[in-house]
Amino acid sequence: MTVLRSIVLFAIAALCEIGGAWLVWQGVREHRGWLWIGAGVVALGLYGFVATLQPDAHFGRILAAYGGVFVAGSLAWGVLADGFRPDRWDVTGALICLAGVAVIMYAPRPV
User: Fold this and answer.
1) Cα–Cα distance between 46 and 58 in angstroms, integer?
2) Which listed site, 24, 54, 57, 90, has its alpha carbon 20 to 30 Å from 31?
3) b/e map of 27-37 (b: 16 or more CB within 10 Å)?
4) Which of 91, 88, 110 is nearest to 99 (CA)?
5) Angle, to 10 degrees, between the axis of helix 88-106 and the axis of helix 2-29?
């Protein structure tokens, strides 16, 4: 159950951070205005809180692992929100990152 909870938290964190960055991008680069920017800032702030809910107590481990989630999530967001089409190297890289997440977060460690 702890691994499942951790995976769900990583997904929520990715939604907050990537979604927040995308909203800021839309507000600034696509000239959608301050409401979009403000919503992005709020989402980015929520990301910080979601990360604290991870069952592991080590900040460095959580953020390092989240980096891999961010890579894969950003590519997926681009597909869904912007019509981006990743090539095989994008997909391969994302899978390598997710394998790294699994090793960092879920490898057996002495208690």
Assistant:
1) 19
2) 90
3) beeeeeeeebb
4) 91
5) 140
Exposed/middle/buried for residue 17 (C-beta within 10 Å: 0-12, 13-18, 19+):
buried
- Give 9's DSSP letter: H
Average pLDDT across the chain, whole number: 96
Q: Is 77 within 8 Å of 19 (Cβ atoms)? A: yes
Q: If you ran DSSP here, which 8-state letter would residue 33 be given?
A: -
Q: What is the tens place of the pLDDT at every residue in 9-51?
A: 999 999 999 999 999 999 999 999 999 999 999 999 999 999 9
